[in-house]
Amino acid sequence: MSVETPTDAVSIPAPAPPPAVAPARSAVAGTVLSAAEAVRSGQAAAGSMVSPAAVAWQTRSDRIARRLVLPTLAVSVLLTVITLPELDAYRSHLRVGVPVAVVAVVWSLGLLGYPVVGVPLRTRRIVFSVHLALAAVLVWADPWFGVFAFTGYFFADELGRRGRIIGFTATALVLAGSQTAGYPNGSVAHTVTYLIMGGFNVVAVLSMVRLMNRVLEQNIERGHMIAELAEANDRLRTTMDENVGLHAQLLTQAREAGVAEERSRLAGEIHDTLAQGFAGIITQLEAARRAGVDPAEHDRHLELADGLARDNLTEARRSVRALRPEQLEQASLPEALAKLTRDWTLRAQLPADVVTTGETVRAAAEIETAVFRIAQEALANVARHAQATRARLTLTYLDDTLLLDVADDGSGFHPSAGPPPGRFGLTGMRRRAESLAGTLSVESTPGEGTTINATFPLTDPSTPLTDPPTRGAEPAR
Alpha carbon of 159 to those of 33, 168, 256, 259: distances in Å? Predict the structure, then answer.
């Protein structure tokens, strides 16, 4: 380009303008301004919000910047020497430029030892000012020193949030002098060119810094998200490990609960079947001994004892296999209760009857079994303890409830006193009812008999029996 110089107008080849933007490392000036400031001032301590990766990156980029100063100065000197014969207008400037270049060499060598961390902001401002002054004088001496002046962006980046903009602007204006073959010299055209180039440099460098800052912001946000995800994964892994232990504990508890439940079931079955059967056998054998010389009565009691023993053996086998009572396998619940009552009357020599009210439906197998066992235990208690003259079983079907009442006219007792020691009949009946969401209550007064009330929910749709038993009183025979 053709420019006016203080001496005369000469044709001067304009040097290739260096890039008018800050290097990528200046992008630290965005969201991580506080991080960069903390690193350079030596305040990035453990526990701060500055990540180790940001500290390492900032330290490495500042060291590279210091090492680039001397090579850029060498390139500027080399270009000046090569083009010196063609730049007669600047030869007079060399009297100042050469000593300043020597000072710049010493300055560049000193910057190799300039620390990257722990430097106060005031010191960084002084360093930038000296560096910018050397660059400005060298660009005045020869435009090719704009290559060296470009490194001013590195030190402007270290001036803090407010000083950074001023530093970038000043460096951009010095570079504009290099790009327009000198600072304004009174020529309107040259001055306008310089101002346009300076404005372009300022807008370009600030825009590029802002863009790079935004990119770095996103990268840091992603880094934080990745760190949070890693932490969440660690917590999830810990939780899963804890869940494994909890699952094993739950399995152990479930196994122990299953064992306890099975023991309770077997205990109830033994009490409701074997124990009652053995008691009946003993009762019949004692009656046979008391029969004395009456062969018919003696044989009758022995046959009853034999039947009880066989029934006991069958019930024992069915209890081990957790099967329903044999009576319920062959008949409906009312029919099974009627047969139970007839057999009990034959053994206990006490009259009893069964009354069924409501529409007879098929209840769940567990509920029918529980009702049958409760009736069985209640009749056994009547025979052993009530001193009654008769008993009655009432089975009532409501819309969603199944009721069983076992009443006798015996001696009665105080229910609040609890069962006598060593007797588990009432406790077992109550446990059976409650295990199926039912209830069991006892109504009794001394001298006025006892009534046991068991209630069970009919939660599932029930199927009416095709051949329901006859309703009303069915006396046991």
Answer: 10, 10, 72, 77
What does the alpha-carbon distance between residue 191 and residue 149 come to, in Å, rounded to a whole number?
20
Give, for 441, the enclosing helix (H) or strand (E): strand 439-444
* DSSP for residue 325: P
- Count of C-beta atoms within a 10 Å radius of residue 16: 11
Say if residues 367 and 456 touch (Cβ distance below 8 Å): yes
Give, as one character, the DSSP assignment of residue 331: S
Which of residues 268 and 280 earns the better pLDDT score? 280
First vs last Cα of the chain: how many Å apart? 135
CA 8, CA 125: separation in Å to the nearest integer? 39
Q: What is the pTM of this model?
A: 0.43
Enter the tokens of residue 198: 């300076």
Instruction: Give the CA distances from residue 76 to residues 97, 384, 450, in Å, rounded to whole numbers and listed in that order.
Output: 12, 121, 118
What CA–CA distance (Å, rounded) separates 151 from 200? Answer: 18
Q: Return the structure tokens found at 168.
A: 């970038």
What is d(CA 222, CA 126) in angstroms, rounded to the nearest whole number?
Answer: 36
Q: 24 falls in which pLDDT band (50, 70, 90)?
A: very low
DSSP E strands, 342-390 = 352-357, 361-362
Phi and psi, residue 13, nearest 5°: -70, 120
The answer for residues whose C-beta is within 8 angstroms of residue 70's C-beta and 6 or more apart is: 105, 108, 109, 111, 112
Question: pLDDT (tens digit, 9 = 90+) per residue, 274-326?
Answer: 677 777 788 878 877 877 777 887 777 788 777 778 777 776 666 655 556 77
Q: Which long-range contacts (CB under 8 A, 24 or more apart) does 334-341 make?
A: 334/360, 334/395, 334/468, 334/469, 335/469, 336/368, 336/372, 337/371, 337/372, 337/375, 337/393, 337/395, 338/469, 338/474, 338/476, 340/372, 340/375, 340/376, 340/379, 341/379, 341/393, 341/476
**What tokens does 407 get?**
């009443």
- Compute the chain's Rg from CA coordinates: 53
What number of other Cβ atoms are within 10 A of residue 190's Cβ? 20
Give the pLDDT score at 308: 74
